[in-house]
Amino acid sequence: xxxxxxxxxxxxxxxxxMDENEKVMVFGEDVGHFGGVFRATSNLQQKFGKxxxxxxxxxxQGIIGFANGLASQGSVPVAEIQFGDYIFPAFDQILNExxxxxxxxxxxxxxxxxxxxxxxxxxxxxxxxxSQSPEAFFAHIPGMKIVIPRNPYQAKGLLLASIRDxxxxxxxxxxxxxxxxVGEVPDEDYELPLGKAEVVKEGTDITLLAWGAQMEILEKxxxxxQNDGISCEIVDLRSxxxxxxxxxxxxxxxxGRLLINHEAPLTGGFASEIAATVQERCFLHLESPIxxxxxxxxxxxxxxxxxxxxxxxxxxxxxxxxxxF
Amino acid sequence: MKDRNHLSNIGLCHEVNIIDNGLADIPMLxxxxxxxxxxKSAKLPDMDKVTAHKIYQTMxxxxxxxxRMVGAQRQGRxxxxxxxxxxxxxxxxxxxxxxxxxxxxSQYREQGTLAYRGYTTAQFMNQMFSNKLDPNKGRQMPxxxxxxxxxxxxxxxxxxxxxxxxxxxxxxxxxxxNEALTICYFGEGAASEGDFHAxxxxxxxxxxxxxxxxxxxGYAISTPSDEQFAGDGIASRGIGYGIKTxxxxxxxxxxxxxxTQQARKIALxxxxxxxxxxxxxxxxxxxxxxxxxxxxxxxxxxxxxxxxPVLRMANWMKNQDWLxxxxxxxxxxxTRQEVLAEMKLAEKVEICNIDEIVNDVYDTPPWHLxxxxxxxxxxxxxxxxxxxxxxxxxxxx
Lengths: 325, 397
Prior knowledge:
The structure holds two protein chains of two kinds.
Chain A: E1 2-5, H1 6-20, E2 24-28, H2 44-48, E3 53-55, H3 60-73, E4 76-80, H4 91-98, H5 101-104, E5 115-120, H6 135-139, E6 145-147, H7 152-164, E7 169-174, E8 182-185, E9 198-201, E10 206-210, H8 214-227, E11 232-236, E12 239-241, H9 245-255, E13 258-265, H10 270-282, E14 291-295, H11 305-308, H12 312-323
Parallel strand pairs in A: 2-3, 2-4, 4-5, 5-7, 6-7, 10-11, 10-13, 13-14
Antiparallel strand pairs in A: 1-8, 6-12, 9-11
Helix pairs in contact in A: 1-7, 3-4, 8-12, 9-10
Chain B: H1 49-74, H2 88-96, E1 103-105, H3 111-117, H4 121-128, H5 162-175, E2 182-187, H6 194-205, E3 210-216, E4 219-220, E5 223-224, H7 235-240, E6 244-249, H8 253-270, E7 274-279, H9 298-305, H10 309-319, H11 325-346, H12 367-382
């Protein structure tokens, strides 16, 4: 065990997988000698050589196109998109290529070995283009897996599982936790399951569901509610696609209430999908309408970042509304 | 930082000197004249009679296939087809200069390369009739072939996406130490896509052994090349990216073969990309959904019919007594019969079982796909007449 922040945990997972499998290659903008703008790929080029860890030209569609070819050839690419906000030039390569390779070729060719890492989310004074949470766009793509860790321990275990999984994975790293979140992380190899939510704290009155950096917000709000005598069950979804409807539904059937929190805008956000499925599965168990505490339907603002964010106070108010319905 | 990429080797000037004629003077390699005679100074590639025969027969084969399949589409037997008439030399002769281990990433008009590799008529038909014998499981429109055994990557409709993929595939081949490269075909229209620029730049910077083969056939559906770009074709872009580049007469089998052979040698020996721009003409319509009479003249087409690559090769073969015209005629007739016979067989083969609708989305279908399949099957069994192709085979639930 070592004390690590999330960047160190990501770095540790990359070293573990590059050590284990020489087909693993890490690349993207500035990831080479410099080690990435956040330093997640520090020392990889020094340790594994320029052939396996390298800078690419500044072209997101090129990075993912290249990664798709490399994956279909049998290598194990871990491609970095420097910010989730800049992934969209690669959207066609992800939507029409990465995710459809296996299906369109009847399983003859696949991009299953590909992992795309990208930092996402706000809270770092990043304004419109260094703050977005684009997971819902990708959740609409059959063939993709989407994974988001909430702390360093989760980051290492989930990233190792993502790299080894035989399906393309979009691994979204909550960048405001990169250095802020510190915890004990095993030095050895371990995996955490994809497609599995985790009940982080048991409770009886309401289920609070989120992922990534918003888990901290839920915990804060739950503490406030606890003082009012409300017992919150906290669930980390961890995988956005495929998502663990079973664990979420079981929790809701127990508590009778559900609140979903995400940073991305409300309309068309992934909370909508969860709410639709849960009302279908848990209709007769629900005591009140499902609450969504999300970002506003605006671009991500800079000066009004605090006001935009679905913070613990907004969450706390929604908990009370839900319980006192 | 390597100086060559920044400031060294740059000369100075002391007057405003805006380059107004930046067109590189890139000539076109030509060995055969339209009548099949060889240019006197041409350094011919080493092409033996067996290879020449295989190239010629493959071109004839594809021409027959195209003619029959356009007909089949007109009769309503298949939904779509896309002929390569006029471009047979570009595709077939380039494929002939490769090793079978080389990966082919094509756009969609390269059936000649696939035929050269040995894709059978039955395989063509099974794909086009989307039946259960198609290894791609009938999931894509006709002509989206793919065959792992022949190192032919499954075709995808979006234009140019295969270009950066080819760079990545080639990089993987290099890292694995394979004595093989990737060839990537695309048209001059697709070269306007962002993926073209991304893919060429990455291949050059990351030293990928890939041949970029541009079929400059004059048209992107109805848009002529002078409305597609203003510079000197596609070849000049290769030079801009620091890529070794050659322009060839795409209707000249010997020029295409020689250029591709040389490109392959260089790409493997030096671990670098090479760009080939083949100047040709799409005598065919873009696809069976297109009608070229709306955008080009009969006279223009005739000019290019006079440069027909198949005829040109036939003339060259005749000149050196390599072509038995009787046998040639018989081959064409045999191919016609074979295409018709295989078509009849393929159109009777059923489509895949309904379970295949959720397979291959992931390595194994996750819970939500299993649930959706179960719901779908129970719906089909309620209305079997509405879904006749699958309703009789729902047994293995």
